[in-house]
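Minimal example, chain plus adenosine-5'-diphosphate.
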Amino acid sequence: MKRFRTLWRRESEWRATERMRELEAANRELQEFAYSVSHDLRAPLRSISGFTEIIRRRYHGELSGEALHYFENILVAAGRMERLIEDLLRYARLGRRALIIKTVPLAKVIEEARERLSAKLAATRGTIVAPSDLPSVSGDPTLLGAIFLNVLDNALTYHRPGVPPEVLVTCQVRGGRCTVVVSDNGIGIPEEHHQKIFRVFQRLHTQEDYPGTGIGLAMVEKCVKALGGRVWVESRVGEGSRFFIELPGAV
Ligand code: ADP
């Protein structure tokens, strides 16, 4: 009986490993597919916006105001689709490259994100405050950069109308893992959407209210998972949000 049970356990383990391998292969195939489709969509899209632009410029005097308005709409839609494709490509590329693990000071990662967000900081009169003694983590600098750039960018974007965004970065190290918390004083997120926002293309607002592609947090989750960490949010509508990024390898 005991021998039978051992055999049965081995068989189940083998099946689980096989299934995992199959799922990983299917996932890789899907990522490759997403990458090549997005890549191939770029050229025809550029033709659409390029030729629309030419017609608009060359025949400007002959076109009615209504026709010019429609051409304008085509250009806006094509521009939006281009941004979506760019973001999808960036998302797909993250899964294609091998990790490069280094010791990365988190203060440097935050500083670089702050520099890249300087125009938005000036436009919103926002602030990002981070302690000077943030730890270093053992991780991939590109993925870490993408994580914090996206989370900080959102913290500046989803601010309450007329209220400058105040973003605070804090960090706790416990048992070799560090949890970075990015808090904002923005519009907040209803509880029923706390998981959904990490999925690709999931947005809670219209382009008119807050422009975006809905890929940022999916990218954050993908990067955090690739580094062996977790990400989650705590938030109440009107009371701001706190994004928790737990990473292994605190140095
Ligand atoms: P995008 O910002 O391009 O829409 P994201 O994937 O980064 O895409 O975010 C998904 C959605 O989550 C956003 O559209 C927004 O509704 C919500 N969100 C993200 N970060 C915040 C935040 N700090 N405060 C409020 N809402 C947020």
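Residues 150, 154-155, 158, 184, 186-187, 189, 197, 202-205, 212-218, 241 surround adenosine-5'-diphosphate (CB under 6 Å). The CA atoms of residues 32 and 197 lie 24 Å apart.
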